[in-house]
């Protein structure tokens, strides 16, 4: 059961014409939330993507376009971050979604009223700067693709515990950034060709194509979350690039797992695709191969088995400096689908809170690399190039074992289902910049401080 409503009706169109274009990311049926500002604004504020425009929620409130639960949600969404809105739970956000769909509908009774205020209510995306949608208190990254795990495991098999529980590590919330900008090549410690420890700029920088989920209402410390309640704790979804430093990762990960190989930066797309918007695209959870153990009872339910997955196409493209200078477009390097993930987001969430760990509104959960069964669905260079030993050949003659300075990685995603309007996620971008010069200590300052 998809639990859809009138906001998902594929017959509805917006009077914002760009929202009705074929394969538009942000049609009337999507209405994702984000934080934007215009150049010169001191702080960001909440907005909703519709076509190539942003519907300004603060301006809409000033125009008295909301009431009831929708107004409560709009008030919270006008803050500089969406945490307050997420803390309200999904019901007020669904009321806001329904009201927005009516306001922006080409056949809506208030169309003329809204269009008369268009200069106040709509901001062209090209004139806006997008910001992180939430203050991220915690970031947990999971490992949910059996195909990714098998390809990178020395034995070619997943770890013994992988099929019993969703595996994760606590990543670095402070280095999560919104799409765009430069990701500096990190320094790190790794083994050279002779097997000796070496410190310097990484030679094996990689991307990981992931899906992110934001926590809505959290749970009290000591209170687990039942599996069939977990979806209600997820506010929405985004694209996520878990930039990874493979040479550092190989050397540092034993025995405690990744550390500096992952904390350099994580990029997320700016628009939060709400839980409600994704309902039409739910599908059955991944069918476990014959012989795999069934999930333990706390991670199993009929509802989750029938509709715990998403039919979501994900792709990664690479734009090298040479392609850019030649005015050529990016080359696609990954095409995968989230339906191939061994564990669902609800299972991740339930396992995360199973020991009573308290999740907070705005916390970020990463799915892990979303690799599927085919060569085209390998969702990182470590898989595509067999850990750098078989470089990827690009059509222009360039090759890549790992990312080089000037390379830009671009993620996109699209959810599709027959009988519904497809929706997109926008883009998640990042460009690799050269490593900074290692700092030299300020001469004498520490001596002065220690002598006082």
SSE arrangement:
Layout: E1 33-37, E2 45-50, E3 53-56, H1 57-62, H2 68-77, H3 83-87, H4 90-103, H5 111-116, H6 118-121, E4 122-124, E5 129-131, E6 139-143, H7 146-152, E7 167-171, E8 176-178, E9 182-184, E10 187-191, E11 197-201, E12 205-206, E13 209-215, E14 234-241, E15 244-245, H8 246-252, E16 266-268, E17 273-274, E18 282-283, H9 302-307, E19 309-310, E20 312-319, H10 321-325, E21 331-337, H11 345-352, E22 364-366, H12 381-384, E23 392-393, E24 399-400, E25 408-415, E26 423-433, H13 445-451
Parallel strand pairs: 6-22, 8-16, 9-26
Antiparallel strand pairs: 1-2, 1-5, 2-3, 3-4, 6-7, 10-11, 12-15, 13-14, 13-22, 14-16, 14-17, 18-19, 20-21, 20-25, 23-24, 25-26
Structural Rg: 23 Å
Q: The biggest beta sheet, please?
A: 8 strands, mixed
* CATH-derived topology of the largest domain: Fumarylacetoacetate hydrolase, domain 2
Kindly estimate the percentage of residues that lie in beta strands according to DSSP. Answer: 25-35%
Quick rundown:
The chain has 452 residues and is α+β, with helices and mostly antiparallel strands. The chain is 20% helix and 26% strand.
Protein architecture, described:
The protein is an alpha+beta fold and 452 residues long. It has two domains: 6-131, Roll (SH3 type barrels), CATH 2.30.30.230; 139-433, Alpha-Beta Complex (Fumarylacetoacetate hydrolase, domain 2). The protein is 20% helix and 26% strand. The chain is built from 13 helices and 26 strands. It has helices at 57-62, 68-77, 83-87, 90-103, 111-116, 118-121, 146-152, 246-252, 302-307, 321-325, 345-352, 381-384, 445-451; strands at residues 33-37, 45-50, 53-56, 122-124, 129-131, 139-143, 167-171, 176-178, 182-184, 187-191, 197-201, 205-206, 209-215, 234-241, 244-245, 266-268, 273-274, 282-283, 309-310, 312-319, 331-337, 364-366, 392-393, 399-400, 408-415, 423-433. The strands form seven sheets. Strands 6, 7, 8, 13, 14, 16, 17 and 22 form an eight-stranded mixed sheet that branches. Helix 2 (68-77) packs across helix 4 (90-103). The longest helix is centred in the N-terminal third of the chain and has 14 residues, at 90-103. It is globular. The chain starts with 32 loop residues before the first strand and ends with a helix. The model has no long low-confidence stretch (mean pLDDT 95).
């Amino acid at each position: 059961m998809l639990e859809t409503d009138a906001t998902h009706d594929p017959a509805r169109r917006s009077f914002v014409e760009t929202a009705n274009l074929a394969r538009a990311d942000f049609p009337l049926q999507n209405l994702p939330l984000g934080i934007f500002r215009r150049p010169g604004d001191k702080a960001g504020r909440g907005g909703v993507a519709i076509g190539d425009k942003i519907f300004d929620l603060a301006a809409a409130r000033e125009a008295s376009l909301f009431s009831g639960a929708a107004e409560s949600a709009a008030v919270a969404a006008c803050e500089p971050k969406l945490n307050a809105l997420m803390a309200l739970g999904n019901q007020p956000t669904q009321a806001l979604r329904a009201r927005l769909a009516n306001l922006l509908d080409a056949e809506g009774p208030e169309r003329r009223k809204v269009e008369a205020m268009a200069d106040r209510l709509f901001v062209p995306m090209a004139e806006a700067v997008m910001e992180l949608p939430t203050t991220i208190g915690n970031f947990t990254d999971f490992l949910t693709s059996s195909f990714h795990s098998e390809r990178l495991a020395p034995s070619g098999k997943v770890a013994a515990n992988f099929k019993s529980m969703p595996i994760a590590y606590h990543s670095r919330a402070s280095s999560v950034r919104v799409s765009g900008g430069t990701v500096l090549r990190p320094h790190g410690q790794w083994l050279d060709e002779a097997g000796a420890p070496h410190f310097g700029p990484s030679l094996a920088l990689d991307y990981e194509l992931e899906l992110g989920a934001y926590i809505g209402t959290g749970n009290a410390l000591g209170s687990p979350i039942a599996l069939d309640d977990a979806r209600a704790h997820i506010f929405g979804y985004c694209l996520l690039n878990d930039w990874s430093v493979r040479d550092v990762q190989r050397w540092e990960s034993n025995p405690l797992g990744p550390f500096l190989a992952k904390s350099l930066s994580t990029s997320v797309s700016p628009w939060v695709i709400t839980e409600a918007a994704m309902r039409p695209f739910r599908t059955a959870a991944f069918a476990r191969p014959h012989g795999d153990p069934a999930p333990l009872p706390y991670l199993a339910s009929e509802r989750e088995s029938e509709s715990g997955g998403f039919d979501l196409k994900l792709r990664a493209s690479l734009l090298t400096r040479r392609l850019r200078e030649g005015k050529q477009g990016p080359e696609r390097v990954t095409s995968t689908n989230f339906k191939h993930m061994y564990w669902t987001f609800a299972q991740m969430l339930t396992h995360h809170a199973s020991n009573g760990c308290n999740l907070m509104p705005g916390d970020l959960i990463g799915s892990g690399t979303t690799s599927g069964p085919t060569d085209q669905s390998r969702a990182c260079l470590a898989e595509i190039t067999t850990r750098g030993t078989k470089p990827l050949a690009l059509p222009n003659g360039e090759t890549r074992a790992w990312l080089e300075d000037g390379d830009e990685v671009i993620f996109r995603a699209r959810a599709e289902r027959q009988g519904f309007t497809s929706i997109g996620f926008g883009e998640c971008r990042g460009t690799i910049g050269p490593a900074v010069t290692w700092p030299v200590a300020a001469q004498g300052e520490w001596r002065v401080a220690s002598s006082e």
